[in-house]
Specification:
Layout: E1 2-10, E2 24-30, E3 36-45, E4 54-59, E5 76-81, H1 93-96
Parallel strand pairs: 3-5
Antiparallel strand pairs: 1-2, 1-4, 2-3, 4-5
Length: 99
C-alpha cells in the first residue's frame, strides 16, 4: 500500500465501458511525516476522496479487490481515507552515532 495525498483529478470522457462513473485522482506518495515524495500515481477512487486528503492506495491485483473495481482494468485504487497516523520511532543512539 502507498500513503499519499490527492493532488488532482484526471478527466476522461472516453474510457472503457467498465470504468464509466469512475473518478480518477492523482496521488503523490508521502513519507510518514507527510512530506511529499517524487512518485505519483493515478488511482480510481472507491471511497469518495477529494483533493488535499491523505489516502491509502492499493496497487496491482489488489486494486481489483474493492466492490467498485472488481474485474475492472484498474492498477491502482484509493481504498481508504486516512484520519490519523500513529508512528512510534525509536532512535538507537549506538547505531546512529548520536549521543
Amino acid at each position: 500500500m502507498i500513503l499519499g495525498r490527492v493532488i488532482g483529478t484526471v478527466w476522461s470522457t472516453r474510457k472503457d465501458e467498465n470504468l464509466v462513473g469512475a473518478k480518477f485522482l492523482i496521488v503523490r506518495q508521502l513519507n510518514l511525516d507527510y512530506t511529499p515524495k517524487e512518485f505519483t500515481v493515478v488511482a480510481v477512487d472507491s471511497v469518495g476522496a477529494g483533493v488535499g486528503e491523505v489516502v491509502l492506495v492499493a496497487q496491482g491485483s489488489s486494486a481489483r479487490q474493492t466492490t467498485f473495481t472488481k474485474n475492472k482494468p484498474v492498477d491502482a485504487v484509493i481504498m481508504a481515507i486516512v484520519d490519523k497516523l500513529d508512528v512510534a520511532v525509536k532512535e538507537n543512539n549506538k547505531e546512529t552515532g548520536k549521543q
